[in-house]
Batch of 4 targets.
Target 1
Amino acid sequence: QLLDDKMDLSSYLLKPVQRISKYGLLLQDMLRECESGAHKGHERIEIQTALEMIQFQLRHGNNLLAMDDIQDCD
């Protein structure tokens, strides 16, 4: 408010979370390209590992939100 900014803090904190989802989609596209092209092996494994890491973080975040909703239920 002091900076005369129209966005609040929660809006700024949401951006990185949205970006993680986009990274997952990008990695899926890259993985498809590796499978259909000549890039098999080490590059594909690295992309698959990165994708699994992103998917784990997204699941973990969703699980934390669900647990928070359950705790606030009473």
Target 2
Amino acid sequence: MSSTIRQVGHGAAMAPWLTIFSGAITACIYIAYGPAPKAFVWDQNLYMHEPWRLFTAHFVHCDDAHIWWNLPPFLLQGWLLERYGARAWFLGVGAGMAGVDIFLA
């Protein structure tokens, strides 16, 4: 009786697109505008007239050290979470950010 060896794999590794996209947005905003431009920083008194601040406040950083202490760990953790099937958890974090925005509004 001949035995067949079947190679079992997980398929092609998926790129962590949510993490890459979020990290790229954060880096681009920082490169384009530098440290925390006032137009993006959250100010509770301005949300009625400038509602984009609810979204942009999550992506601004106040200086070089701040972005370098936040972005690499975010990319590493996001990559690990997405790689091991935690996209739902990752999206949950996004929903949590939206919840904070709703609470602040």
Target 3
Amino acid sequence: MSSQFIQTKTQAELETIFKKDLKTGVGRSIKHDSADKQVSGEAQYIDDKLEFPNQLHVYARMSDRAHAKILSIDTSPCYEFDGVAIAITAKDVPGNLDIGPVVSGDPLLADDLVEYYGQAVLAVAANDHETARKAAMAAVIEYEDLSQYFVLKKPLRKNTLS
């Protein structure tokens, strides 16, 4: 009876064999294009760039409700702030509001229904970010709260997940 001996390789030897003919970045450390500029402090970021003349800043007002019908939105208080160029709601946007990249059903601004806390309801463009924020928060939004599903059993029983 003869015993056979199977020679095993070390981890380092296996890595050398694996990487020898490797042509892609898998298993290798590859420096990305902007790495040198980022580590040297030479990279330019959006906040490093100067503003354009007459540049506007946009602030989106988010819903403070998880599930509600939008009864009305009054944007007239937004215009009481100096520097506000425009305040828009879904009603002001022509065409399809759906911006879902893969699956439809993701509106740019909530139209008649808020479906989650933090959904964008209106947007204000102004001369600076702080003015846009204050103006957006001044808009008056009336909601009718709808039932919220925190437990999956209820919507499954009602055959709905909305």
Target 4
Amino acid sequence: DEYKPEKALSEDDLKNAISVHHALAIKAMDYEKKPNVLKLKTADWRVFLFQA
């Protein structure tokens, strides 16, 4: 479903949320499997890769 601001977030939505407060997003220069990959490092040192 598409996110709608007037709809309350469910517990599952909150469990799967990624906090981007104080996070760092950079191009993943060391990742060569796919093009246009972005690395997101969160304040608690978790790393996520996103393909744009």
